[in-house]
Amino acid sequence: MNILFLSSKSPYPIKDGHSMRTFNLLKRMAKNHRVFLLTYFLSKDEEEEFEELRRICFSAEGFKLPSGGSTFLLAISLFKNLFSPLPFVAQKYRSREMLARIKQILKDEKIDLIHVDILPLMNYSAVFDHYPVLLVEHNVESLLLRRRITHTRNLILKFFLWLQYAKLSLFETKQIGNADCVAAVSEEERGILISMNPDARVELVPNGVDSDFFQPAAEDKARNSIIFVGGLNWFPNLDGISYFCEQIQPVIRLRVGEFSTVIVGKEDKGFRYASSITQTGFVKDIRSFVYAAKVFIVPLRIGGGTRLKILDAMAMGKAIVSTSIGCEGLAVKNGIHLIIEDDPRRFAEAIVELLVNDQKRLALGKNARQLVEEKYDWGIIARGLDGIYENLRKKNVRNLRTI
């Protein structure tokens, strides 16, 4: 099958949950299909390491965003967006070069299916006529924005985000109807998407993990430490770790003498933290840091979709403490696969118990690993996606025969 695969960012190198999901599914789909990848470059390293995607795909091309990383051009784009019906996240990815290349590939190649890997790229949907379209919703984007508004204190920013939410909600509702099939990452979000547009066909294609790469440690040598994985350049992560530092860590400090907290992920220059916290910055391989910690935390208050970092930690057999939003959409049971607490004091107490109770800590990790092997390995998920591809292709063949 010939697949035109559209992505808003180069999925390699893997830097976050979005790129991790896209890369793992893309490389598996490319084994069975001719994949024509079109993407944007959001950073210099994505351009430098693009050869890996050219190796995997039948063809792979990248484009620079119209704003080009310029603060001045970004400001102009934001101002223009005040007069546009499109949300800024969709307008941001409108490129003449990308549009021209999409049209050229559709003209020159016998494309069987268009895989749109994120909602904003549906702004090109006008040229998708007569092609089956799969839209991937990594999050219900309007829901994610609404949750961010709840935790935004700046009134000017809050007003701007409300305007964006109104546009995004309309855009999302329309585009999930324009796609022939929408892939949701959890049953909860599948239900939300259907409630937004009852005519939409929504299938479950959950997030996953490479369970061969992320294995439990051969020997438990975890220190009395806590780990958080996630780039602080993403607002939900920054809000979550700020919440942890302000409301949770002080309670732990009263109960436990010696412990440390490690943050693995891209730093935020404005983040202020205690001396007991270590920031590693972005690292390509998180495993050594996760192995060294006793407790993996996900103190998120804002989010959508499902968090791949939890699945990585589960595959590594780590004990996890999460908010309900942090583990939202995963088939986990509180007290069996991880600990779920939304109250900051109880969140802290759960961490303390796992720091001192090795038996419970190791049991949680063992159960988490077993769940990953049964439900969340990328190989299992890729087979489900392949089935959706085939169903869309068959539907398109039938439609062409009736024209």
Q: Which descriptors would you attach to this protein?
A:
403 residues; Rossmann fold; 2 domains; six-stranded parallel sheet; 13 strands; 16% strand; disordered C terminus
Explain what this protein looks like in three dimensions.
The structure is a single chain. With 403 residues, this protein is α/β, with parallel strands linked by helices. The chain folds into two domains: 2-208 and 378-402, Glycogen Phosphorylase B (Rossmann fold, 3-Layer(aba) Sandwich); 223-375, Glycogen Phosphorylase B (Rossmann fold), CATH 3.40.50.2000. Helices cover 47% and strands 16% of the residues. It contains 15 helices and 13 strands. The strands form two sheets. It has a seven-stranded parallel sheet with strand order 3-2-1-4-5-6-7, with helices on both faces. The longest helix has 25 residues, at 378-402.
- Helix/sheet category: alpha/beta
What is the CATH fold-level name of the largest domain? Rossmann fold
Report the mean per-residue pLDDT as an integer: 91
Count of separate structural domains: 2
Shape designation: globular
Instruction: List the total number of helices.
Output: 15
Return the string of H and E elements. Answer: EHEHHEHHHEEHHEHEEHEEHEHEEHHH
Strand arrangement within the widest β-sheet reads 3-2-1-4-5-6-7
CATH architecture of the largest domain: 3-Layer(aba) Sandwich
CATH class of the largest domain: Alpha Beta
For the record, give the distance between the C-alpha atoms at the N and C termini, rounded to a whole number.
21 Å
Number of strands: 13
Give the uncertain stretches in residue-range form.
398-403
Radius of gyration in whole Å, from Cα?
22 Å
Report the major sheet.
7 strands, parallel
Share of residues in helices = 40-55%
CATH superfamily of the largest domain: Glycogen Phosphorylase B
Share in β-strands:
15-25%
